[in-house]
Amino acid sequence: MNDAFITALNTQYATVNWIDVLSENMTNTYTPGYREKQVNFKTFLNGAIVDDFEKNNGQGKSTPGTSKNNLFIEGKGYFLTKTAEGKSVYTRLGDFDFDKEGVYRAKNGNTVQGYILNDKGEIMQGTRALSADLYQETAMKGGALDIPTTTIKMWIDPNNGKFLGKYDEYEIKNDGTIVGKAESGKKVVPLYKITTRNFHNCSGLYEYKDGLFLETEESGKPVLGVGEIRSGLLELSNADLKANISYYQMAKQQMEVVNKIISSNKDLLQQALQLVGGS
After folding, report:
1. 3-class SS of residue 128
2. How far is 115 from 130, CA to CA, in rounded Å?
3. For residue 46, is pLDDT > 70?
4. Could you tell me which of 87, 85, 21 has the C-alpha nearest to residue 50?
């Protein structure tokens, strides 16, 4: 059986960590893309030992973005972006926009990935078209389609100011399809489909920066995402402010109790030393 004083110190340390996590959650309640941290406790028998923090993978509320090119996933899934070195990075934060060269990028510079479509809206796998039905069926079954993605680029022709040299404007549909429009909107042509991915174990993803995740052995390989895409919106934090305030009050009460136990143990120790010294 562990010493009560050591147990109290361990609990105090764990409670400080708990309060820090709750404070971070509450501070970021309205931060777009923030994933709520959750603390689990293994045991209270020998003092609270804090597990690694887990992420809340639930849906955050939507909020108007700063551009029609901002994206929001309603449902499960992550946007696939790539670094300059070609590393795949997954995120829920669709704070995207086209740069001056027409490349669709995240704020951190990563390129947003998509599939090239033919005139029928089918994904092109090299020179072969993939039916939309097969894509949807695979997504619903939680499978993966081994199709290379590409950087989405809506280049503007400097000679006529048109997107890809042909289209007056573009629109992002709810299924993630980017269409080009010409002839006053009479001509609508599918161009790209924004890539979304999901994981059988999202909790196993490694968050190397806020809101940016890498796949791991624990997360498993990515499969197709099934959430719908809304343009012009961003996902807010999924932290529950009311719940975190409630937990914060509990943590403060726990800290007060632990501090009293530590104080009492110090008093007892001091009295014992005085008795020993006086004998």
Report:
1. strand
2. 11
3. no
4. 21
What are the domain boundaries of the chain?
62-235, 240-279
Q: pLDDT confidence of 1, banded at 50, 70, 90?
A: very low
**Contact of 238 with 222, CB cutoff 8 Å:** no
Distance, CA of 29 to CA of 48 (rounded, Å):
26
Residue 73 to residue 51: CA distance in whole angstroms: 30
Nearest-angstrom CA–CA distance, 80 and 138: 18
The string of pLDDT tens digits covering residues 217-274 is 999 999 888 888 999 999 998 888 888 899 889 888 888 888 887 777 666 666 666 6
Tell me which amino acid residue 200 is: H
Q: What angle do CA 185, 114, 214 make, to 5 degrees?
A: 145
3-state secondary structure (DSSP) of residue 1: coil
Amino acid at 248: Y
Task: Please give the Cα distance from 110 to 74 (Å, whole number).
Answer: 22
With contact defined as beta carbons under 8 Å apart, do 200 and 142 qualify?
yes
